[in-house]
Amino acid sequence: MLLEIKDIHVHYGKIAAIKGISLQVEDGEIVSLIGANGAGKTTTLKTISGLRPLTSGQVLFNGADISKMPGHKRVIAGIGQSPEGRGVFPGMTVQENLLMGAYTRKDALDADLAEVYELFPRLAERKNQFGGTMSGGEQQMIAIGRALMTKPKVLLLDEPSMGLAPMLIAQIFEIIKEINKRGTTVLLVEQNAQQALKLSHRAYVLETGRVVKSAPGPELLDDPQVRAAYLGGH
Amino acid sequence: MKGNGVTGNANPLRRVGALFDGARDWWEHAKVWQRYLVYLGAIVFALILPAPVIGEFMSPGSDWTTVLIYPIGTYILLAIGLNVVVGQAGLLDLGFVAFFAIGGYSVAYFGTQYGWNYWATVVFGILLAAVSGVILGAPTLRLRGDYLAIVTLGFGEIVRITANNTDEIGGARGITNVPHPTDMPSIGVEFGVLPAPYYYLMLIAIVLVIIFSVRLQKSRVGRAWAAIREDEDAAELMGVPTFKFKLLAFAIGAMIGGLAGGIYAGKAVFIEPNTFPFILSATILAAVVLGGSGNLPGVMLGAFVIAWLPERFREVDWLKDALGKDPAEYRILLFGGVLVLMMALRPEGLLPSRRRKAELHEGTGGMGTMGAEVAGPDTDVSTTEAAK
Questions:
Q1: Among all residues of chain A, which has the CA nearest to that of B384?
Q2: Which residues belong to any copy of the ABC transporter domain (chain A) (predicted)?
Q3: B236 part of contact set with chain A, CB < 8 Å
Q4: Do B358 and A147 touch (CB under 8 A)?
Q5: Would you place residue B287 in the very low, low, confident or very high pLDDT band (cuts 50, 70, 90)?
Q6: Is B336 on the interface with A (CB under 8 A)?
Q7: B133-142, B224-233, B323-332, range with the lowest pLDDT
Q8: What is the DSSP string of A79-97?
Q9: Does pLDDT of B5 surpass 60?
């Protein structure tokens, strides 16, 4: 088991955003969390990456309890995240953004940088452009590329399709598949349930801070309840 | 035709703005020897700056060298310090004057009560300021934006009021007979009544602090600060220990503030709590923002303008005629008007860095223009989820 969270509770002030979620991610999988606004998907990711403290429960990574580990150390441990809203550094160029991903690394970066540029040729064309002046899709590429530069064992992606044109969404999902194929485990949060489920080995359905269903991705695609609630009921 | 009048006025200022931008672009592509030539020119310029010929225009009414030390030099030093906190790490600090006060009081108190050597008191003041920066930062740097600003504002006032009510450090009467810097007969420098030696002392301090600040900005620390300023969560996700680096920014900013306080006290002979009012924090912040937060030459230019303009307004003859009174009574109003005008015409500051411009134009916290257009109600999960 690469990543496991056990019965976590997270509060914003007094309001419970997560009321006891448990999930597992095996090495090499693509796992997705789907659900409506406010279901707790983003909060779950932030709790795993250490941006949100948890009230109770446990986050285990490679078998070790990392619940109390600060976020910046979890990066070194092997958890990379492309945050909600992309979080591109607007005043840094594309290349500087990618190099920020390697902030904690002391080994050679050339090969990894070349790999990111190979995955996203668009970024290679615009190395020296400011992150803030890139389009939404390009910023998403920066955010994913930057997370890859941390050399993660598990890559957390928060709504990579948000705000993108359908063509670009398809492209981004292709790339996620490719990243996984090259050996990185992926935990994906998506509102675009159709696309996410097609891609995922397994998926969890979240509703108001709880897991209401979990099954292999293709199975959920055929689930009548899930179809009605998240896939437009066809 | 009010609108036309406004654009008419704007044109010359726009042209000045374009000149600034052109200078910055040239600088970015300048060769190393060209840069060193500019550094050399700047130092020579600073050395001859107190010359009476320049002073005649810059400060006809009061002694130019004295004006150069306070307010101009002091403001520049303070602005470079505050720029580390505000411009580099992106933390809004409204109580910066507290560190200036701590530096000043260290020199005054340990010099008069314990007879310490002046330089020792300055170094001790810098350390004390750094420690208080950490003490202020440790519990408060978990706050963000406006909340942090309010806490720092409170800290500035706490320091001033504490000084006001502590008899050991003179209470409201302050401390008199603050010792001057130790004379250095070996190189023929004597710190007495003449302002020139203090000016050169201030100049050395400013040059050292600039070198220190530029080195920091180009280091790993500077990159971490830039990341924190642009998106704190993303910085943490890149493995930047954000809390530690914010604390470091506070400590380093505080040290520079403490240094400024030490030099100021060495010249001033007398300090009291009211030497360190809140308005001074606000003024220094105005200097940083006006000049171009994050860009060192801009920040220094801003500090110079903010320090010099009100002094200069006192001496403008046609203003005297127009107002029928001493313009000194109106100078703060005029100064405010100039600030409003400048921020309306150049909101990024007089001399912003290109990068800072990109950050400000982005203005959506990491969301590109396209992302911002289509972002749904889910954009801020913390509020939507809190609303549930």
A1: A38
A2: 3-233
A3: yes
A4: no
A5: very high
A6: no
A7: B323-332
A8: EEEE-TT----TTSBHHHH
A9: no
Between strands A64-65 and A79-82, the pairing is: unpaired
Residue B23, CA distances (Å) to A62, B51, B298 in order: 54, 26, 12
Looking at beta carbons, which residues of chain A come within 8 Å of B371?
A: 85-86, 136, 139, 162-163
pLDDT of residue B372: 32
Residue B139 pLDDT greater than 80, yes or no: yes
| Tokens (6 digits) for B188 | 């023929």
Domain ranges in chain A?
3-78+152-231, 86-150
pLDDT tens track for B313-363: 878 878 778 877 777 777 778 778 878 887 788 888 888 888 877 787 765
Amino acid type, B333: L
> How far is residue B233's CA from residue A46's CA, in Å, rounded to a whole number?
10
C-alpha distance from B351 to closest chain A C-alpha (Å)? 16
Residue B82's closest CA among B68, B71, B98, B69? B98
Question: What does the domain layout of chain B look like in residue ranges?
Answer: 66-277
How far, in Å, are A47, A92, B76 from residue A57 at the CA level?
11, 37, 51
Q: Which CATH superfamily is domain A3-78+152-231 in?
A: P-loop containing nucleotide triphosphate hydrolases (3.40.50.300)
**Best residue in A42, A72, A107 to probe B by mutation, most B CBs within 10 Å?**
A72
Could you tell me the pLDDT band of residue B13, with boundaries at 50, 70 and 90? low
Amino acid letter for position B385 = E
Establish how many alpha carbons lie within 13 A of residue B356's alpha carbon, considering only the half-sphere containing its beta carbon: 25
